[in-house]
Specification:
The structure is a single chain. By secondary structure, this protein is mostly helical. The protein has helices spanning 2-26, 30-33, 38-43, 50-87, 95-99. The protein is built from 5 helices and no strands. The termini are far apart. It is flat and about 80 Å long.
């Protein structure tokens, strides 16, 4: 009887500790998630500053580069596939296959 209650207690502690992390994340104020780094808070808070515009453009540039690299590689692969497809000879079908004889 003692081992069953001990095992049940351990399962309860495990469930409570597994639920503690998401609950603690929910208790963090929303403002603290939006603070960002000191550089972002300094430059992006003032909208009239030309450095803020430059900073925003550089962020967009850095975010777009991985997509551009993958798109160029995919486009090159598709172009190479289509180009090699034009030079391939047509497949010849055997007469027995075309007549339906197996």
């Amino acid at each position: 009887m003692r081992t069953g209650s001990n095992e049940l207690w351990r399962m309860g502690v495990a469930a409570l500790s597994a639920a503690a992390v998401p609950l603690s994340i929910l208790l963090v104020p929303a403002e603290s998630w939006a603070q960002g780094c000191a550089m972002c808070a300094t430059y992006l808070s003032s909208g009239a500053d030309p450095r803020a515009e430059a900073f925003k453009i550089s962020i967009m540039f850095l975010m777009a580069m991985p997509f551009l690299v993958v798109a160029c590689a995919g486009g090159w692969i598709a172009w190479m596939y289509r180009r090699s497809r034009l030079n391939r000879p047509e497949l010849r079908v055997l007469q027995a296959e075309s007549e339906g004889v197996s």
